[in-house]
Write a structure and sequence with these properties.
four-stranded parallel β-sheet
């Protein structure tokens, strides 16, 4: 297939939902690869625009708003700021990062829908949907819960079971209920407007299956599986109160489907950018309607159907827009061998990472690229994160740069020396890196970011090997001129590294360019051996990367362990059913127990026991009572001192761990197995009887 030539490139990155922060799965799947690609195009002096923004409509936002007792706009405002600030600090270099609640977007999306409606490109249909008779509203899929028909999970949503991963429809759920009111939903008819995908199936097959065989196999394969089935009309409106109102008479109480509205945000955000600075960017139309513009969407695999089938059909139906030339979607990134889940808080959040690891943006960028889930799901672990930083960034890249710069400082006061006669070892090193530009370009042009970064790191490996073989610290004693050549070549490699890693590690590349005083650079210089001229003064060298210690990693593992424990408790609470009541006993048997109120004067852990706490109890008798209780896992002893608790006073004394226990403190067993001591609502005198 003949390669197409374009004058410019429009790059979009999937709009994150503004109902939570951005996590490493989002970064690895979308934002790091898209940023690498855009930085690469800019280095090549190509005309490119990078579009991002927050997706601020849809049910996930309304769910969080209801949960927190605030408005959907409050949720959007909070998370839009968190996401935008995190991206900026992490170095995701959007030319614009806007939002779908903007006035520009509302008008643009509304006009887009109106044109399709007026041109007869949408179909009006009635369908049966669940309705909440108590909340008086139709229910979006996420507002319906019930039992999964596949795995029996009683807390499956109307669109997906998060336990077994099955895609569902609300009608498949067993015993469904509304999450708004708890009521059993009714089936009622409602009218919506549909995009007739079935009418575009032939065109989609030709455009994708014949016209884009170069797309990644995972993207092409998913498109083919959809196109091998009969496509059905897809609703472009919803019965909701949060979103862009449907601009059609008789559509009161309906909004544009979030997956109709959100991708139009790419265009409206471009318009916002161009309107603000037309001299710099020109008209928005040149980025979206000129056939000489290349459109590239960066997304995760869960968005393939929307960006490859639905959005292109919308653009085709409209008639004025270019279509995506490539959609390099990534698969999913797991965390510590478990699926990342925002609802379970099983994630590494970008805003938290930036606080926990200040100044280490490039470490995460490097690791996520090295583990990029480009064609299959991959895994992130904190131990691998530490290992790649310490053994690759520190020990290979940073080590080579430091050796070259420190030796130059030591022998020539940081001035680039002359290059003398080249020996075979010099020629071999030069030969090894002369085609680095071609190799990295080939991978980047084909969206193989993991392999491209490997090639960039290979420069540092070549450099380390070269310095080790040449041993300039030994040669200096007998042949200083020879050392000049060794360091000259080493410094050229350092300068090449600053360029090669610019798309991947922009912060450390900037730091390195400052150390070698190379403010001006571009991609065309990569592979040259005259980037730093003899006599050029270098700045003071410092370490590019710092070792990450075990303690820092353990903190992150402890955080995840706490999350896992909280999830297990929450899961146990969801499925909790009280134990059946035991068989009746005569009242006289109860009266035999002497249950009293005791005041805790002191509480200590019992030595050599993980379970026992030793209580000193004021039981009202004037003599303190000692009671042992196996609740050490659930309480800090200091938190119990001063509390009033219930205890059985007339059990026979019993020795445990050499200590005599004179009674039993009453505790309730929670759904998750934790123990909670029983107490009184009001202060009661020690020794008071319960009965």
């Amino acid at each position: 297939m003949e390669e197409k030539k374009f004058k410019r490139t429009t790059v979009t990155a999937a709009l994150p939902y503004a109902n939570g922060g951005v996590h490493i799965g989002h970064l690895a799947g979308v934002y790091v690869p898209s940023d690498i690609y855009v930085r690469y195009l800019r280095l090549k002096k190509e005309d490119v625009v990078f579009i991002g923004g927050s997706d601020e409509h849809g049910v996930p936002i309304t769910i969080r708003a209801k949960k927190e007792g605030i408005t959907p706009q409050d949720v959007c405002d909070r998370y839009h700021k968190i996401i935008k600030d995190s991206f900026r600090e992490f170095g995701i270099s959007f030319d614009v990062y806007s939002r779908t609640t903007s006035k520009i977007h509302h008008q643009f999306a509304s006009d887009f829908f109106s044109k399709l409606y007026k041109d007869g490109k949408l179909v009006e249909q009635e369908s049966e949907q669940y309705y909440d008779p108590e909340a008086h509203q139709f229910l979006a899929d996420r507002y319906i819960m019930g039992t999964c028909p596949h795995c029996g999970n009683p807390n499956a949503y109307g669109d997906q079971c998060e336990k077994c991963g099955s895609d569902l429809s609300p009608m498949e759920l067993i015993n469904p209920h509304s999450t708004i009111s708890g009521a059993k939903p009714e089936v009622r008819k409602t009218k919506n407007w549909y995009l007739p995908l079935n009418e575009y199936q032939g065109w989609l097959k030709e455009w994708i299956l014949n016209g884009h065989k170069e797309w990644r196999s995972n993207v092409y394969g998913q498109c083919k599986s959809w196109l091998d089935m009969d496509l059905q009309p897809r609703a472009m409106t919803r019965d909701l109160d949060w979103g862009i109102p449907v601009p059609v008479e008789g559509a009161e109480g309906k909004v544009l489907y979030v997956w109709f509205d959100a991708p139009i945000g790419y265009i409206s955000n471009t318009k916002e950018l161009c309107d603000a600075d037309p001299e710099r960017w020109g008209s928005w139309q040149k980025w979206w309607q000129d056939p000489e513009t290349r459109l590239v969407h960066f997304i995760g695999k869960d968005n393939i159907v929307f960006h490859c089938l639905i959005f292109p059909t919308m653009l085709k139906a409209h008639g004025d827009y270019i279509l995506p030339d490539n959609v390099p979607a990534n698969e999913f990134l797991n965390l510590e061998n478990d699926k990342i889940s925002t609802s379970r808080n099983w994630a590494v959040w970008l805003d938290e990472y930036l606080v926990d690891f200040p100044g280490k943006q490039d470490v995460l960028r490097y690791v996520l690229t090295a583990n990029a889930p480009e064609t299959k799901d991959n895994n992130f672990t904190w131990r691998d994160f530490q290992e790649r930083n310490n053994s690759e960034l520190v020990a290979i890249y940073g080590n080579f740069v430091n050796r070259a710069l420190q030796l130059t400082k030591k022998y020539w006061n940081g001035v680039v020396p002359e290059c003398g006669e080249l020996l075979e070892v010099d020629k071999h090193a030069i030969d090894e890196f002369k085609d680095v530009k071609e190799k990295v370009e080939q991978y980047l042009d084909n969206f193989k970011f993991r392999e491209a970064q490997k090639e960039a790191m290979n420069l540092a490996r070549i450099g380390n090997k070269y310095i080790t073989e040449c041993e300039p610290w030994k040669v200096w004693k007998t042949d200083p001129k020879r050392v000049e050549t060794i360091l000259y070549i080493s410094l050229q490699l350092v300068a090449n590294l600053a360029i090669a890693f610019e798309p991947f590690l922009p912060f450390s590349s900037k730091s390195l360019r400052e150390m070698i005083d190379m403010p001006e650079f571009d991609w065309a210089q990569l592979g040259r051996t005259d980037l730093l001229k003899p006599g050029h003064q270098l700045a003071e060298p410092h370490l590019l990367f710092q070792k990450i210690e075990d303690e820092e990693i353990q903190k992150q593992l402890d955080k995840l362990a706490a999350t896992k424990e909280a999830n297990e408790k929450a899961e146990a609470a969801k499925s909790y059913k009280a134990e059946p009541v035991k068989a009746n006993v005569p009242f006289d048997d109860f009266e035999k127990l002497d249950i009293r109120v005791g005041h805790i004067k002191d509480c200590q852990k019992v030595k050599k026991s993980n379970k026992l706490l030793q209580f000193t109890i004021d039981d009202g008798s004037g003599t303190d009572r000692t009671i042992l209780s196996g609740i050490a896992k659930f309480y800090d002893p200091a938190d119990l001192i001063g509390k009033d608790v219930l205890f059985v006073a007339n059990f026979a004394p019993r020795k445990m761990m050499g200590i005599e226990s004179q009674g039993m403190i009453l505790s309730a067993v929670d759904a998750n197995g934790s123990l909670h001591v029983t107490t009184t609502l009001d202060q009661v005198k020690p020794g008071s009887q319960v009965g």
